[in-house]
Amino acid sequence: MKSRLWFSERTDVPSQSPWVGAHRLRHGIWPRTPSHEEISYIADVKEHLASYQECKIGLLDLDDATIWEKSRAVSQQVDLYLWNSISTIDGPPTMVHDLAFETPVPGAYDVIVIGYRLWQAMPGITEVARTALAPRGAILAPSAANISSPSFAMESAQSTSHLFVWRRSRINLLMVAPGLVAGGADRALIDLINGLDSSRFTLYLATTEPQSNTWIKHVLGRVAEYWDIGAMGSDHLMRQKMLQHVVMAKQVDQMYIMHSQIGFDILPWLKANTQVKTIAQFHLEEPGGGWIHYALSRYQNLIDQIVVISHDLKQQLVSKYYVEPHKISVVYLGLTVPESPTPPPLPAPSGEIRILYPARLDPQKAPRRVVDIAQMLQLQQINALIDVVGSGSLESELRHRIGRARLESKVVLHGAEEPAKMRHWYQKSHAIMLTSDYEGLPLVILESMAEGRPAIAPDLGATREVITSETGFLISEPSDIKAYVHAIDQLAHNPHLVETLGAAAHRRVQQQFDPGDTLKKYQEIFLHLSTSGRPPVMI
Q: Where does the record place the Glycosyltransferase subfamily 4-like N-terminal domain (predicted)?
């Protein structure tokens, strides 16, 4: 007898079901006596499922008539084959549970076939199978035959059953980052998490470094689950194991890694044991290469897609690390831009100009230069106030330097600020200034430009892609204190220049950094890589 296979539409899928696009596969059931028809059946199933990209099939055969020759033949048709004689009533459900959660790779198999005799002999296994396998989907192959009937073999041969092929509608997407603290990269991740279409993605978040994640509150209502793996301490191997557990427990389809060493270091295990697609996101190349060098020099072939925030950074990856251009997607940071720029504040009675310095106080941002700039402004009698909004490892040192130079009235430290409150600071300032040693494309520059404020910043990374002589001031050498002072002096003595540059800056970001475009591009990347085309299937 030859198995017959064809598709027909199923129409009774519950509207609230997480599985959509259901089809019904009708087929003949092979005879009770072991034969090569069973092998042919498995081959036919795999052939019909081949149109769904990659597909792994596992067979759990608990039929006591299984013989070694059949086992060997069947095992050549599937990716995983387990068989055992039905000896106890408790054995098979346990095996089903183990196959779903523990043996040998949880979550890796799209198709699991459970021997039809077991289905009829043990009705209780139905609930076990549905509980253990239904979230992922499985082939559960019941027979319409009555196992107690003397003519069981004939009835099995002539009966039919229905095989439902269900395609999962949502992608399980795991975001992995060192943490969520004050910073442009973390702000961008928060915006991405909050902006992705919840009907297409189930989002999970894992932070991997031991630190206080002060901004985690901005995403807790959006992610399905959050793991603070960094809270486990400094044991690198333990944190890797925990992240591996998360991948398996949540049946992750894709993993998005932003500057996380733990995330990168599990890639060899991930690719050897799962079909999870990986996306690495980079904001900038740090001195010595930083995370870009770490990830690409070790794991480039294990990363399915790379996302960068500028064409400048893409060119660096192509030229320095020989990454194939088609593997790199440029996705600009997105931000909401007001319809019109906010008018700059009126000059103070003293003629003082306000410069905003919104940055982490750490070595990358080089905040010591702020004191040097303020000293030169005072020497040249340029009336300027610098508002420092940020915190970090150099805060105490910076406070000491300000006091020693007696600049407390000219450089004011305000501490870190919540993202939602930054707009207030942009609006009360005449311009924004950064003094970093290295950068990608600072989000604070884009946000200030969106409010109609010109920027003064070093010519680093992709900064030149937004700051020009029409929108602000590019400083050729980050340590050139005179260049910063000269730019501030021009703004202080020409109030109309603040408004002219600010209007041009607003137009620039309005045209180039639409948040809708950013989310659309990210979703296209995730959907393109989606493994949901490999059908989880269920009877």
A: 183-334
Which is more confident, 303 or 80? 303
Q: What is the CATH number of the domain that holds 75?
A: 3.40.50
Instruction: Decide which of 113, 140, 169 is a domain's last residue.
Output: 169
Question: Do 375 and 327 belong to one domain?
Answer: no
Same domain, 207 and 96: no
Check pLDDT > 60 for residue 41. Answer: no
Token pair of 197, please?
A: 């279409």
Give residue for tokens 């150099």.
394
Q: Give bridge partners of residue 239 from the DSSP assignment.
A: none
Q: Across residues 163-183, what is the average pLDDT?
A: 70
Question: Which CATH number belongs to the domain containing residue 259 in this structure?
Answer: 3.40.50.2000
Confidence of residue 169 (pLDDT cuts 50, 70, 90): low
The answer to whether residue 381 sits within a structural domain is yes
Q: How confident is the model at residue 323 (pLDDT cuts 50, 70, 90)?
A: very high
Same domain membership, residue 293 and residue 421:
no
| Sign of the dihedral through C-alpha 300, 301, 306, 311 | positive
Q: CB–CB of 356/414 below 8 Å?
A: no
Question: Are 16 and 158 in the same domain?
Answer: yes
Q: Is residue 90 part of a domain?
A: yes
Preceding peptide of 178 cis, ω within 30°:
no
Query: DSSP secondary-structure letter at 142?
Result: -
Helix, strand, or coil (residue 370): helix
Query: What mean pLDDT value characterizes the chain?
Result: 73
Q: What secondary structure, in 3-state letters, does 270-331 show? A: HHHHCCCEEEEEECCCECCEHHHHHHHHHHHHHCCEEEECCHHHHHHHHHHHCCCHHHEEEC
Same structural domain, 313 and 244:
yes
Q: Do the beta carbons of residue 278 and residue 174 sit within 8 Å?
A: no
**Same domain, residue pair 306 and 385:** no
Q: What is the mean pLDDT of residues 429-454?
A: 91
Does residue 446 belong to any structural domain of this protein? yes
HEC secondary structure over 497-517: HHHHHHHHHHHHHHHHCCHHH
Task: Evaluate whether residue 518 is within a structural domain.
Answer: no
Q: Give the residue, 371 or 495, on which the prediction is more confident.
A: 371
First to last CA, the chain: 22
- Poorest-pLDDT segment among 67-71, 216-220, 398-402, 503-507: 67-71
For the chain, the domain total comes to 3
Rounded Cα distance between 127 and 485, Å, is: 73
Q: Give the range of the structural domain holding residue 373, as residue numbers without chain letter.
A: 353-512
